[in-house]
Give the backbone structure.
Amino acid sequence: MQKERIGYIDIVRGLAIILMVMGHMDFGYQFDYYIHAFHMPVWFFISGWFQKNNHLGFQNVKRKIHKLIIPYFIWGFLQYPVWILFNRSANNKLEPLMNLFWENTNLLMPIAGALWFLTCLFFTELIFAFIQNKFKNKINKTAAVFIMIITGFSLPHYFQIRLPWAIDVSFVTVGFMAIGYYLKTYFNNEHVKRFFNLSIIEIIVLGIINSASIFVNGYVNLRTGSYSCYFLFWINAILAIVVFWNACRIVDHKCSKCFLVTEIKFIGRYSMIYLVLNQLLVLIGNRILYRLQIGNIAVVLMVKAIFVLLIMVILHRIALIFNLRRLSWMIGK
């Protein structure tokens, strides 16, 4: 039986995917600066919200491999020949393929650079499950999460060390997973409920404060291990998640049947396809844009917006194809 989906959470996922595609399409440094403060943390928060089976048994690990690691390799290998086609003059054509097996946060990855998220989520879930199983006391669990977070920040920041398959990022994102998990656990608590039932005015005010705070902090990018002021990074990400979550809840309540909202929910539901294939289409769009040689910035942004719309339409059709039972294994279903 298919589980009933929560509409506003699919909206959160869908909007996060749209922001990701726009970021890959490059709408300017300020836009990139803003969305990187929260659009990846929100995914780990949601994953924590839905964490139920925290066992580290063979069957659970096998399920996670099927859901995340198999699609990682499938789409990495499938898009590698396309990378070769577009980079025939590259000196080391094997480097992107090697990065697929090792440092996938490196900018030299086969077209689907966003695949780093899959390995990162895989290890985040394993680390979180290990903490949940190893430590029975809540204080010890919290301390273990804090140790992971500090380690994840310190490795790239102080020691200039990046771990394979975005494991160092997993040390950080386990914190967002833990926050999502425990907020869901105590969701019946009146204070927690209030946290997720803000009014429109409260959302606007908190959103303005959060936006200002994001630009006070330096550049943030989980993939590259850039957090700037670590305290502000966490405050900004958590506030943005609260704003994002509450805004999507209100949108779902007010206009859940609207075509645009329904489409965003679809994107959130089939987010894997959008994640693994968007950069291939973005690459083609950027090549076309380059050949057009448009000098006016406003026109460039308008054309990019049209390309994003076309990419989402194409990926919608592809998602319908891969939802077929005989192909769903390729997207972890």
Q: What stands out?
A: The CA atoms of residues 104 and 165 lie 6 Å apart.
